[in-house]
Design goal:
The protein is an alpha/beta fold.
């Protein structure tokens, strides 16, 4: 179905802008290249496809963790260094007999099973950290758009209303949600190079 999409089929009016939100989505697309090194992975092919739709902005949000390595040892090490965070947050906010906590812990357990029990195309999730994903976006023809200071202040204000364990930092064009100083989730904004050159966009998002 996605292959049928193009700027014409979207039928956007002149006063409309296309915004594409890729929150927690690219992790499900394989980053393996089939055949030669020049061939595109499904992940890169999807990014090229949505770039062809001439979006005004593309938002990319996901866990800041690299679980794409082919080495099982590497994936287990990264898993251990990252997935303690949701367990620790659950311990802080929800009682042990909470049904909601049990659901969250079950989801984390499925993620761990996916990381250590499956190889190749059987692995459903293939997370990349924010730095790796940013480089991928640049490689396929996107330019990073910085978040403005006002946006950063608003996000920090929202976090200050919750537990002191949560924080935020700016890092290499990303906003990164942290738990006790450890990176959890990254958020970035992108425009296709052609769109930015055409409309003369500023370097930051309001």
């Amino acid at each position: 179905m996605l292959s049928l999409l193009n700027p014409t089929t979207l039928n956007l009016r002149e006063d409309e802008a296309l915004v594409i939100n890729c929150q927690n989505w690219l992790r499900y697309l394989s980053d393996d290249r089939k055949g030669s090194r020049q061939s595109l992975s499904l992940r890169d092919a999807f990014l090229n496809l949505i770039k062809g739709l001439n979006p005004r902005i593309v938002l990319l949000v996901d866990e800041d963790c690299d679980l794409s390595a082919s080495s099982l040892t590497s994936r287990i090490t990264t898993c251990f260094n990252h997935l303690w965070i949701p367990f620790d947050a659950l311990e802080t906010f929800l009682p042990k007999d909470s049904g909601q906590r049990a659901e969250f812990e079950s989801d984390i357990g499925q993620k761990i099973e996916n990381i250590i029990s499956f190889e190749g195309h059987q692995r459903i999730e293939r997370l990349e950290c924010g730095v790796q994903m940013s480089q991928r976006m640049k490689n396929v023809g996107y330019l990073n758009v910085q978040f403005c200071d006002e946006t950063v202040r608003e996000v920090k204000g929202l976090l200050d209303e919750h537990s002191s364990g949560w924080g935020m930092k700016r890092e290499e064009g990303m906003l990164v949600l942290t738990w006790k100083g450890n990176s959890c989730v990254f958020a970035t904004a992108w425009v296709p190079c052609e769109i930015r050159d055409h409309v003369g966009m500023d370097a930051s998002l309001p």
